[in-house]
Amino acid sequence: MQSSGLRLYGIIGHPIAQSLSPLMHNANFESLGIHASMQAYDIEPQSLNEALQGFLSLDFGGLNVTIPHKETIIPLLDEVAEEAGIIGAVNTVRFENGKLAGFNTDARGFMHLLEPLRSSVEGAKFMVLGAGGAARAVVYVLLKHIRTNQIAVVSRTAARATEFTDHFRSINQSKLSTLSMGDPSLPRILQSFDVIINATPVGMFPETHAVPIENPKFHSGQIVIDLIYRPMTTQLLRQASEDGARAVGGVEMFLQQGAEAFRIWTGQTMDIRTVRSAIISKLEQDISASS
Ligand code: NAP
What we know:
291 residues, alpha/beta, six-stranded mixed sheet, 12 strands, globular
């Protein structure tokens, strides 16, 4: 606790300017009358350990962790919750008695996102674009909680794809395969998948024109999910809607992973209505600013 009694929280990433986590948590702190504040910190990969020690010595309440630190932070922590260890990615850190404890709340966030789609996705063929921290949480949920036909992980780095499938060997690797992001037939292969999930940062604010796959073409039998929440409708989702597919953005996952992080830090329930309205109005302002 700071001398002013203000409890400090942070979100760390590189880059980090796009993050709306400070807006989310500060809106919640204010609504619940909690004397606390979250700020974003741009931490380069080589400074991660030093930064963690700094947050610890400043008596922070907790951290959210985003690109590119979710996996590399694990060996730097004193404890890792069982689920986060199985996923192999941490997006929430709690400081307790001078120790760093890591958790993964992306998995729970993704479960919430899938809930309204559940009947449509049971038994489906899933294509996951990206092999980073968010992709790990997604594949964990699919392997553990959803009846899947097949899960293909598409990575631009072959070594990362192999590491990814090796990691999930203990859960159920038989459903898991890998594809290369550079495969020129990817747009054609994509046609045979029922659910396509973007877990790369491609298309994220401020590079909102970008798409993770060149010239994607979807059809009406598909669901396209983009974990990106800023912008609410990415270029990929716009394309999916134009092609008649069902398009689902990452806002609900973002809200739910944040609510779970807040519960881990404080034991309290987030004022999700207030937070949702603050986030949506910021995302709508982005749209007005860009048009
Ligand atoms: P990460 O751990 O850094 O992983 C990113 C993945 O995307 C890596 O596999 C990376 O490939 C790949 N990638 C990056 N740039 C690429 C490019 N130009 N072309 C192809 N692949 C590329 O990041 P993360 O934490 O998983 O986050 C990924 C995205 O999900 C971000 O946009 C993040 O905002 C979003 N997300 C949203 C929520 C939510 O609550 N809605 C939660 C978590 C994450 P390499 O391995 O080759 O580097």
